[in-house]
Specification:
The chain is an alpha/beta fold. The protein has twelve helices and 14 strands. The strands form three sheets. It has a six-stranded antiparallel β-sheet with strand order 13-12-1-5-3-14. The longest helix is centred in the middle third of the chain and has 24 residues, at about 105-130.
Length: about 350
Amino acid sequence: MATRIPVEKFNFPVDKIKAGYYSDAYFMRAREILTGDNHHPRVLMQIFPRADVVVCGIDETIALLKQCAFNPEKLVIHALHDGDEVKEWETIMTIEGDYADFAHLETIYLGILARQSRIATNVRKVVKAANGKPVLFFPARYDIYQTQESDGYAAMIGGITGFSTDANALAYGGKGLGTIPHALIASYGGDTVAATCAFDKYVDPSIARIALVDFDNDCVNTSLAVARKLGKKLAGVRLDTSGSMVDKSLWSQIGTFKPTGVCKELVQNVRTALDAEGFNHVKIIASGGFDEARVKAFEELGVPVDTYAVGSSFFDGNINFTADIVEADGKNCAKAGRKLNPNPKMELVD
């Protein structure tokens, strides 16, 4: 049986949540009406996705219910596990109890499930497309920092083990990866070799020496210059050419293919040049605008990329969930078009 994250690992602003600060107002009014009217039917709430997804956020939702519901000990929860692949309309969780005890939580748990499942689903697609090659989770700069820990957890559920920030890496128990930004190279007057040598001198030797080589828009010659200087210490080069730029090594080839950004021809030019001088050990990391389709295309073409660093595309899409009451006091009360949809794969939550 799969394990769940202990409830006490989550830290919610319980008072604000119970007061309805994060809830759609009509849920709070529903609770006010039910308690005012002393009307307390025992309902069965059913939650399902509106698309095929890798579901994530289950454990956080369970913790939310246990910490922030009123009378949580009276709720009965059945649920799938984070990481389960589910179909559209498939029930992923049911909550049974007095609706007034958990009405205020619907906005929050649907948001948790939506965001985390979107990231986990996108990540798993890219990981599968990469055919076993490492994929790095580098989207932290594209959203507010408070989401990094939960985003990293969702990425781990999707299959990633390399992250750009410590917060992203928390759930995996690791540390943020990454070596040289363009800003460091600029700080050394645009000298990539100088910046990489400074990195090599001052950064812990356990950190892989990976040079960022597109600063001068000349990835081949910059890769060779760094490799000649660092030799066996250079673990890899990262290509991050802008999608609006054409690398110098491709200028003579313009007209036969789309030459912008990190295209397959650029990767091949760098690989060929490194191998020709005996730097076969140097890996190539590709970044800049990669998503499932682009990674899949590279793999189908046999482009010699060793690792993909992916960012904003992990936030793409509009995955969402719906919660419906389908029974009240043991009787059907589902709205038109909805019905009780049991899922034998769900387990009773302790």
